[in-house]
Amino acid sequence: MLNLTSTLLASAAPSGAETNIVIDTFIKGGPIMWPILLTSIVAVGVVAERVIWWTVQSWARDAKRLDAVYAALEQGNVQEASALAKGSKDPVLRSIYHGLNHHHASLEGAYQVAAGTEIERAGRGLTAIDTIVTLAPLLGLLGTVTGIMHSFHFVGDEQLAATKVSGGIAEALIATAAGLTIAILCLLPFNYFTARVARLQFDLQTAGTNLELLLKGAAHRLAAVGVVQEAALSAAVQAQVPVSLQAAGHAHKSNKKEHSDEAAFATAA
């Protein structure tokens, strides 16, 4: 039993020692470590939220449904395209739906408003991460300055100089290292999220261009079909008019002949 207890304590000792090292290092970093810790907590929260959001958006993208909407628009069937885009979680399809169902603005204007809303949602949190990337090294630099200043207070004291100066230098280095670490770790997701926002913006611009071109093409085709039908109807009418006139002419000649025959009969009588 004693051996088992000793084994458990021995296995737990390194974990406690590591915890003490982290706490001691944090304390040695000086008061500036508290705002650095706050920035790290904010960074973790924002990055985690953005990772979850982009993961959900990746699952929501529906390329097949988007192609079906394009096919319906190419045929000029706006109602079918609107029905396909309705209720979709895809930001591109949502923007197309709002564009097709505009009420108080043009199609282009309604689509741009919806696309701008999607881009704003995608870029949420980037300002906070960018601020942390810039702020964390500056806080570390401030910790460096305060640590060096703390060290110089004891330069003239020979008894305390060795320990206090080394403690101030440690404070300066720890604060700088902590600030740079947070900035580096935040820079990677910041660039990744920025690239994703740029990609979404490109997809929305492409979809807007396709929407405009498909609707214009469908309108031109319908107009061309209407012109052809009108020309065919006009040709049919023109083809029927001479026949009618010819029939009327024959009837007129027949009536005239009958009148002349009656007149001749009356004269003979």
Summarize the structure.
The chain has 269 residues and is mainly α. 89% of the residues lie in helices and 0% in strands.
Structure, explained:
The protein has 8 helices and no strands. The chain has helices spanning 2-28, 33-60, 63-74, 78-85, 91-100, 107-122, 126-152, 158-268. It has a domain at 32-147 and 173-226. With 269 residues, it is mainly α. The protein is rod-shaped. α2 runs parallel beside α8. The relative contact order is 0.10.
Major beta sheet, specifics? none
Helix and strand content put the structural class at: mainly alpha
Distance between the termini: 157 Å
Q: Percent helix among the residues?
A: over 70%
Q: What is the ordering of alpha helices and beta strands? A: HHHHHHHH
Q: Count every helix, treating DSSP H or I runs of 4 or more residues as helices.
A: 8
* Beta-strand proportion: under 5%
Q: Total number of β-strand segments?
A: 0
- Average pLDDT metric: 78
Could you tell me the radius of gyration in angstroms? 42 Å
Shape: rod-shaped
List segments where confidence is low: pLDDT < 50 over at least 5 consecutive residues: 1-14, 241-245, 261-269
Q: Helices and strands in order, then pairings?
A:
Elements: H1 2-28, H2 33-60, H3 63-74, H4 78-85, H5 91-100, H6 107-122, H7 126-152, H8 158-268
Features:
269 residues; mainly alpha; 8 helices; disordered C terminus
